[in-house]
Amino acid sequence: MWQEIENQLRAEFEFKDFSQAFAFMTEVALVAEKLNHHPDWRNVWNKVSFRLSTHDAGDVITARDHKLAEAIDLIRKRYQG
Amino acid sequence: MWQEIENQLRAEFEFKDFSQAFAFMTEVALVAEKLNHHPDWRNVWNKVSFRLSTHDAGDVITARDHKLAEAIDLIRKRYQG
Amino acid sequence: MWQEIENQLRAEFEFKDFSQAFAFMTEVALVAEKLNHHPDWRNVWNKVSFRLSTHDAGDVITARDHKLAEAIDLIRKRYQG
Amino acid sequence: MWQEIENQLRAEFEFKDFSQAFAFMTEVALVAEKLNHHPDWRNVWNKVSFRLSTHDAGDVITARDHKLAEAIDLIRKRYQG
To answer: Which residues contact D6 (CB under 8 A, 6 or more apart)?
Structure first.
C-alpha cells in the first residue's frame, strides 16, 4: 500500500463516502496527536491520501513515519474490511 | 436494540476503545446535522448511549427519532460488524 | 465552573450551536486520548456536560481529573471567549 | 483570502496547533455534509488549505463553491478572531 517516493511514505485510501472518510480521519487525528507525529494529508470526498515524513529530521522518512503508517493501516482495515 | 422508555428511544452501544467510539460519534454528528435532528447522547470510554425524542413535539418520540435511530444503526453496524 | 459533587468533578458548558459544541468535543477527545484519561460526558444540542472521576482509583477525583478539567477549560475559553 | 486560480477557489488558513486545526476541520465537515458539497482540502499540522470547485459542473467554480467558502469563513473567524 505504502510507497516510498521522494523521501515520503505515500498512500491513498478510498472509503464508501465522505462521512466514512472523515470518521477514519478522526481516528487518525487521535492517534497522530497521541504519537505527537502528524501527517500531511488530503481529502477529496471519499478519498484520503497521505505523505509522511519527519520534519525535525530534515523531511525524510524515519521510524516515526513507519509507526504512524502502521497505526493508520490498523484503523483503515476496520473501515475497508 | 432500541427500547421505548419514558417517551424516549434508548440504546447503548459498545466499541473496541475510545478512539473507535468517537469515530462512530463523528459519523453520527454528521448525519444528525444533515437531518437537523440531534441526539441526547452520552459517552464513557468505549460506550455510547442515546436518548432520542423530539423537543419541538413536546419531548415525545416522532418519526424524526425513528429516522435518526435507523441512521445510527447503519453506522453502528459497520463498527460492530 | 467545576463543582465537586458525589466524588465527581462536574461542569456544563453551552455553545452557539451543535456544530460548535461538537468541534469543542473533538478537541477534548484529542486531549483526553493524549492524557489517556477520558471523560464521562453528555451532549444535548449546544450543551456539553462532564462528570470526571478516576475509575482506577475507585471512582474518586484524582489529580488526573483536575488536569483534564484544566485542559477542557483552556479549550472552552477559546470557544466561549 | 480566497483567490480564483485555475478554476478553483483557493485559500490557506493557519491555526494555533493541530488540535485547533482539526476542530476547525470538523466544523467544516459538518457544514460540507449539510450542503452536500465537499472540499478538496489538505492539512499539515496547523495549516489547512482548500481548493474548491464543482465536479458536476465540469470542475469549475460555481455558486455552491462561493457558498461553501462563505461558510468556511464564518467558522474560521471564530478560531482566528
So the answer is: none
Q: Order of strands across the sheet with C3-5?
A: B3-5, B8-14, B47-52, B40-44, C40-44, C47-52, C8-14, C3-5
Residue B16 distance to chain A (closest CA, Å): 11
Interchain proximity D38–A32, CB inside 8 Å: no
> pLDDT truncated to tens, each residue of chain D (81 aa)?
899 999 999 999 999 999 999 999 999 999 999 999 999 999 999 999 999 999 999 999 999 999 999 999 999 998 886
Whether residues C43 and B44 touch (CB distance < 8 A) is answered with no
User: Which cell is C13 given?
Assistant: 458548558
Of D78, C38, C63, whose CA–CA distance to A30 is shortest?
C38
Judged by CB atoms closer than 8 Å, whether chains meet at C78 and D22 is answered as no
Architecture of domain D3-80: 2-Layer Sandwich (3.30)
Contact B49, B12 (CB under 8 A): yes
Please report, for chain D, the start and end positions of each structural domain, with discontinuous segments joined by +.
3-80
How much is the ipTM here? 0.95
| Cα–Cα distance measured from residue A73 to residue A46, given in angstroms and rounded to the nearest whole number | 17
Question: Interface of chain A against chain C, CB under 8 Å?
Answer: 26, 29-30, 33-34
Neighbouring CB atoms inside 10 A of D26's CB total 25
- Closest residue to C22, CB basis, from D24, D30, D75: D30
Instruction: With beta carbons less than 8 A apart as the criterion, state whether C47 and C13 touch.
Output: yes
The structure's pTM equals 0.96
